[in-house]
Amino acid sequence: MKNLFILILLIFSNMAYSKSLTLWHAYRGKERKALEKVAIQYEKEEHTKIKLLAIPYDAFDKKLTASIPRMQGPDVFIFANDKIGNWAESGLIETLNYYFYNKKRVFLTQMFDTTIKAMVYKNKLYAIPLAFKVPVLFYNKKYIQNPPKTFNDLIKISKEKMAKHKGLFGLGYENTNFFFHSFLYFSFGGKLFTDNKKVLINSQEAKLSYKYAKYLALETKIMPQEITSAVLTTLFNKNQLLFVINGPWFSAEIDKSINYGIATIPMIDDKHKPKPYMSNEGAFINKYSNNKSEAIKFIRYLAGNKGSKIRMTEGDQSVSVANLYNKTTDNKLKAFNLQAQSSEPISNSSLMNYFWAPMTQSLKKVLEQNISIDDALKSAKLKIEKLLSK
Amino acid sequence: MKNKESGKKIINISYFILFTVFIMILQGLLYSKTIKMNSLNEKLYLIKTESNKLFQKMEVEGFIKKKTLQTKLFENIIEFKEAQDKRYPFIYNRNLKNSLTKQKQLKEDSLLDKAIYDSCDNHHSISKFKGRYIIAYSNNKSNKCYSFISTKINQTLDSGLGAIWYLLIGVILIILVSFIFIPKNNKNRVILSVITILYNTFFYVYSLIILRNAQNKDIENIISITKSNLTQTFIIIIIITLLFIGFYVTKLNEKLTNTLIKYKTPYLYILPGGLGIALLSFAPLFSGIILSFFKVKYGNYSFTWFSNYYDILIGGLSDIANPEGFYYTFFITVIWTAVNIFFHLLIGMSIALVLNKKGLKFKKVYSIIFIIPWAIPNYITALIWKSMFHKQFGSINNFLVFLGFERISWFTNTFTSFLANLFTNIWLGFPFMMVMTLGALQSIPAHLYDAAVMDGATKWQQFKYITLPMLKPALLPSIILGIIWTFNMFNVIYLVSGGEPNSSTDILITEAYRWAFERNGRYGYSAAYATIIFIVLFLYNHITGKISSKGEAND
Known about the structure:
The complex is a heterodimer. Chain A is built from 17 helices and twelve strands. By secondary structure, chain A is of the alpha/beta class. In chain B, helix 10 runs antiparallel to helix 16 (about 460-485), helix 14 crosses helix 16 and helix 18 (about 510-515) packs antiparallel against helix 19.
């Protein structure tokens, strides 16, 4: 009887929050803690229970596409923008034009334009941008104090230091992964596709970027071979790597004993400014959710000034609210912000899915298997066109 | 005696007649639903043409006043103007002056308001909202968009629940009939009722799914969807009826009931285990097989008969030279399995023979050392080997340099990449064969060897005529098991070579994984691959089972 009483009490205590929202995210570590803090603060202020559920990044898309049509999905979820095309086409996510453009447009004017455009698909807004992630240059302060301004400097410094210290490498980035090759690809003016499914990867600009990647990997002799993320982490943590081009998540993998700095990626030459891929995280609303107005309210809080401040200071996130960067003293966040000004938002078209694997394969062919750039890009183009025609 | 048998036949025939009549009723119901959908579509057609006419009129004359809205089809027409905000050129503003709606009315249902607002985001769209249709037309030249909101159309598709009564009546009827016509002592009575209920539940759920699917699709596609679904239903019904008839013709039902009653207790004992296997093994297996008949493109499933199998075995994926093609991968898988098993056996057996020597010191230490590769989880071993094969930092290349060779880039060449996989899996696989051989060796009676020595047999002759034949019965099952494991050794391929270069070292199981999770979620292909793997292994098992049982019989 006593137990029953406690049980009833428990049930009722849970009902103190009359409203509740479920939120799925793929955050870990600091970012997760910051999000939890925002949720707790919101619960206090608005008396709405926020149920957070962390889902592994790789499984996120599969879980969403399986659960939302069966009415078991979250009300709100946070994820990168590159799947918007697919989700919108299969009717999983709610359009937000009505909520954010109908009357008040002030809310969105405080965000970076590029981050909002990343959330628009076929003239509809599908998510509210929260944070962006862009690759930058990490450098080891044990060897150098000021980051280089051009790639020629970077190569020169690397060669000098490598001559002095045995076992040291100059530059490391995952050069066979198209995501990281992007800073060269878009710098030389390469394009992927047009709206009417025309594949443009066989262009002169794309070939130039491959040529430069080949030059970096094979001729300068400042890079390790067969680079994976594990190789980068190990070498950098052993003080055996001077520069790494990687995203903000790399900070979490760096050992506490390493003194490192973050800067924008140096100029490739006078004409070519690096343009790495920028991925944008946004808050989405489930099309089948029953609490849409509550969800909108929470998103406004999460993406607005209050929520963004917590995510920025506690979670080290590069948030999408522009004016917060004027006040911050964190040089690392400033570097991310600066790099974002010169970046290429990942396309959220559903066509994008057909490009990742063939592009990465073509890079492997050029950089590791000694196949000519022309042949590699030609076969990649054929492969993509075959996939698109199906 | 004769009378009884003929009586039975009559009962069976009458049952079938009833059964078919019942199915016909069900089909009639479903067809009547399509007719309903047809009438709905007619209304939609009217709304479309009428709104189009009005839109053209408005293009010429400007906005239409409420009085001129003679037709009863529409409740409202709202005009939107493109926003002047250059930051977001894709936004429309509602032009309140030219709206026929009173703002209050719309406020009542903010979701309807949203649906109307959203309709103008697309240049030409038809959307459905709570029984209303919202049709939007826009003109790029005048930067205007008009939303036509239809009156509520009460007829909805969601009448699937109504069908349950027909089904219930049908079930009750059949149970009654079977109870009346089939004599009390006949076990068929219960079985018939159970089967009927099961079948009807299946049918009911299936028809609900059809209706649900039809609802979620575009309005214009409803008819074609229902029609194709109905033909599918029809085919499924025929198959089930044939099965049902087959059940009776072969008298399987009587055999089944007889054994069930005869061996009641043992069946009860295995019931929990059987249920577990049914849920954990058979259910996924069958859902996988069913999935292999569907084409899946980003969450949309469409039934395509054998097209996945056609693509894989005959069509686009059958190219032998293409590393992603089926036959190439199959070839690699067979070679992979054969070479692996050969080395597993060779190394495992040799070590076991050495360890089995009498008087060998530290025997236990050795056997523990040799079992270690088996004891460590295989993905950890695979990851360690992967890092050992790194061109610049891997210990294998360092060793090669120490010996005076050049560094090898292991994963850029099909042959070396395959070798890397092979080394890893040999390391992982030999301890199993060693343990099995060791166990079998210890059960060979020593007096056989004593007799052989007396007869002057050499060591080789002892091995050939005593050891090998005595090992055979113990080793055969482990070889069969080893082949199945290696055939599906996902972890090593995926983690060590990852299919590199260009998925030329992938085996069937990793290829199946890639179709599902790395190539845009093509679950249909993936399921078809898995089914083919299942069939191959099933046939292999069947054949080897027959051969080995023949061998034993010959012995």
